[in-house]
Amino acid sequence: MHAQNVMQAAIRGRWAVAAIFLANGFLTGAWAPQIPVFLTRLDISKFTLGLLILLFGAGAVTAMTWCGHLISRHGSRTVLRWFGLVGSFGLLVVALAPNVPLAAIAMFIFGGSIGGMDVAMNANAVAVERRLSRAIMSSSHGFWSLGGFAGGALGGFAIQNYGHLAHATVVTALAFAVIAVAVRHLVAEDKPLQGSTGGNGHRKFALPGNPLVYLVGLMALLTMISEGAVLDWAALYLRQELGADLAIAGLAYAAFSGVMAVMRFLGDGVRNRFGAVTTLRVSALVAAAGMLVAGLAPSPWLAIAAFAFCGFGIANMVPILFSAGGNQEGMSSGTGMSVVTTMGYSGILVAPSAIGFIAEHSSFGPIFVALSGLLVVVLLMAGLAHRAEFAPDAAPAE
């Protein structure tokens, strides 16, 4: 009977963390159609916008660093509760910012809350996997992409018809309601974290000596630069360079996320059938082709279709790379995951301001073409992700 109760709690925890992935993606996707309004409302240049998005990335990476420490002390369930409930207000804070200095603070807070949620929910998904003795990572990321699709698809229409502040308020209310219900059912780790606090609590800050984990982290970095570029700049690209209206411009990230969601729900089965390395290679090739066509597209609808095709490829690249990082030889899964996650999200920290600066002096089209080249590099390095080739039954090791 006890075992049955534990399994039922794990199943509830699986759907609870899925709901938080969904809410996190919804908040992130809802930000994408806010960007063109943000630019005009504050009367800033693309370069200044890039710097503000840089602060979003800085907040995310800062929170991620501290989040790892907090999880080691308090567990992912507690940390996710706090980051989730606070993070649901991040978009509203940005939408309320009346000037650049306050917008800078708001972007840092928004990025920090989203980044902290991201690390905690991925860590909690690992705890659920161990309880269920099966993988849920790709489908969890699928819920994130589904949320991103909903946020991006509805955002442009809502902003155009009701205004950016009304849109942010509704997004906040929906996200808070989902997270408030979900956090009550999250699972906790099986206590190695707190049970070994003695003098070992800070061991996780030692840098791993295995160089392979940093190369996997580099692949995550290149992949997430491309993913972040679509989030931050695709709507502006369609609006300013391809002549789309605000509602259509918001569809670029929506199409990207929607296709990613479908593929991530299928990702565990695809990976089990064809292997992680083969799946990563084909995915990188497809993503590079989609990004290339998006950068060369003469019309908004072709660009939207190309971004969707790119999402088809990128969908399972990050889950595979996270899995490869968490299965490195000679280190704990948490340490490997931490390195790859932090390096990956550094792409969101560095890329936006660089893209904004380049776009200020040229255009977005050539930038997306160049990003396709970064995905080709991931294709060439795909063999380094071989540690993600593990038998499903071996995942829930104690």
What can be said about this structure in brief?
It holds the Pfam family MFS_1. The protein is an all-alpha fold and 398 residues long.
List the helices and strands and how they pair.
Blueprint (H helix, E strand, L loop, with lengths): L1 H30 L2 H9 L3 H29 L1 H12 L2 H7 L3 H33 L4 H26 L1 H19 L9 H4 L1 H4 L10 H30 L5 H4 L1 H24 L1 H21 L3 H15 L2 H10 L6 H29 L2 H18 L17
Helix pairs in contact: 1-6, 1-7, 1-8, 3-4, 3-6, 3-17, 4-6, 5-6, 5-8, 7-8, 7-13, 11-13, 11-15, 11-16, 11-17, 11-18, 13-14, 13-15, 14-15, 14-18, 16-17
Verbal overview:
With 398 residues, this protein is mainly alpha-helical. The chain folds into two domains: 189 residues, MFS general substrate transporter like domains (Growth Hormone, Chain: A); 181 residues, MFS general substrate transporter like domains (Growth Hormone, Chain: A, Up-down Bundle), CATH 1.20.1250.20. The chain is 81% helix and 0% strand. It holds the Pfam family MFS_1. Keywords: Membrane, Transmembrane, Transmembrane helix.
CATH fold-level topology of the largest domain: Growth Hormone, Chain: A
| Unreliable parts | 192-204, 390-398
Strand content: under 5%
Report the order of strands and helices. Answer: HHHHHHHHHHHHHHHHHH
CATH top level assignment of the largest domain: Mainly Alpha
Shape: globular
Helix content: over 70%
Question: How many individual β-strands?
Answer: 0
Tell me about the largest β-sheet: none
Distance between the termini: 22 Å
The fourth-level CATH homologous superfamily of the largest domain is MFS general substrate transporter like domains
CATH architecture group name of the largest domain: Up-down Bundle
